[in-house]
Recover the amino acids of this structure.
């Protein structure tokens, strides 16, 4: 049988921060989809998508 989960365990799990901590600033990194528009050779645009981990120390570099 499965272990019964009480309200205190649910609240503890919901309040916990998910992700890894940054060794420089100590904040939790959040996964973000970074989309960059790049002009192609045919005169239209392509969108490069990349998943990046964002924290306080690299927030300015990624968001602008």
């Amino acid at each position: 049988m499965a272990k019964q989960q009480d309200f205190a365990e649910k609240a503890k799990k919901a309040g916990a921060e998910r992700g890894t901590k940054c060794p420089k600033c100590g904040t939790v990194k959040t996964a973000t989809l970074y989309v960059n528009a790049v002009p192609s050779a045919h005169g239209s645009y392509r969108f490069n998508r990349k998943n990046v981990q964002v924290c306080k120390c690299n927030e300015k570099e990624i968001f602008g």
